[in-house]
Amino acid sequence: MNQQQCRLKTIYIFIGPPGSGKGTLSNLCTSHFGWETLSTGNLCRKHIIEQTEIGKQIDFALKSGKLVSDSLITCLVEEWFEQISNKADAVILDGYPRTVAQAEALQNCLNTKFSWANIKIVRFSVEDEVVANRLGNRYTCTNKDCQAVYSLAKGSNLVPKRAAVCDYCSSVLGKRADDDMKAIQERLIVYHKHAGDLISFYGTQGYKAIEFNVDKNLDAVFTEFKQFACLHSL
Ligand SMILES: [Zn+2]
Q: Is the overall model pTM greater than 0.70, yes or no?
């Protein structure tokens, strides 16, 4: 594939703590601009359901209680890029790469196959206290096919219309096990370590992370991101 045949122009790599709204902003960009978002979790599930060769290997790893190896994830991601590169002008990588090893593998792939694409590293900045408060107040629809996210935080625009019931499918809302305070603090510590390593890695590759303040409401975050995207690439 070469530059003339390919629509893909910009790759946004979102680096941000859990609860900083990466997924929500990705969804908005997907619905408003027709961008594509890479979620490795969803991609793994899709391959397992479709029983592809990679899917079988992932399924085997998970059933044996192992982590899915970086090399399998890299295969998935490369294939995903091939498939979407003609479907969208921009893609968002949400929560991937997570480690420097994954970032190196991704960079190899992009340098080889999509060398013309702009890579923008966007670092979501928000105080730990703010995301901890958000996550601590986060409730998710227990219906596996819905999984809508709600917040009971004061002033949030994600408060459910009826207490503890999903607006869309009327299922009961529940709390994820990793949204309790101790687990949240641990996730934030792990996040900061990985984020620091990733930012340094991209620095050595000549990419400076853009600090993006997300301690504001969703409309303001989206407006600012649109301005930023227009200025830098669209
Ligand atoms: Zn629901």
A: yes
Between the CA of 140 and the centroid of ligand 1 the distance, in Å, is: 8
Calculate how far, in angstroms, residue 59's C-alpha sits from the geometric centre of ligand 1. Answer: 27
Q: Ligand 1 center to residue 202 CA distance, Å? A: 38
pLDDT per residue, tens digit, the chain (234 aa), is 666 678 899 999 999 998 898 988 999 999 999 999 998 888 898 999 999 999 999 999 989 988 888 888 999 999 999 999 999 999 999 989 999 999 999 999 999 999 999 999 999 999 999 999 888 998 999 998 898 889 888 778 889 999 899 999 999 999 887 778 888 999 999 999 999 999 999 999 999 999 999 998 888 999 999 988 875 544
Q: How far apart are CA 164 and CA 119, in angstroms?
A: 41
Q: Give every CB contact of residue 226 below 8 A, 6+ residues apart in sequence.
A: none
- Residue 149 CA, ligand 1 centroid: distance in Å: 8
CATH class for the region spanning 3-127+181-232: alpha beta
- Scanning 137-217, the segments in alpha helix (DSSP H) are 181-204
